[in-house]
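>> received
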Amino acid sequence: MRKVEIDGSEYNVSVKDNQFYLNDQRIDIDIKDINQNEYHIIVEDQSISAKILDLDQKNNLLKLKIGDHTFECSVKDVRDQFRHFIQMANPSEAQTKAVISPMPGLIQKILVKEGDEIKKNTPLIILNAMKMENVIKASEDGKIERIDVKEEQQVEKGKVLIQF
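>> returned
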């Protein structure tokens, strides 16, 4: 289950047995790709056009245009909720410096090695997800202490990739 916040309202969203649920209510929905970032959605016999205007994968933020309306969404899965809980319970844990996979994918290329001194925004890893190359960059200056993945390794969202 994921918690989705849209313009200040929070919803529980899940998919079970290829069925879509919103706040534990089953919704008939069909989504078709039109092209990159544009979709045709049929919800309960109603046709809707949708477009992703902006996607911040690091912070799980999404800006959508649905019909004539624009929405800002925050999406959190169970791992995000658990990570937030741990950080609230143990503030020193929040200070751990690690690069975490923002999505599931394949490690295509590792651009740094252990011991490298890096600056903020230094490209670290190329992660291939949904047929797109995503460059994972450093969020701050530091020294690479450990690389926890290998090229061609499949990773899940939330996997620690690099520690510094």
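>> The longest helix spans residues 78-89.
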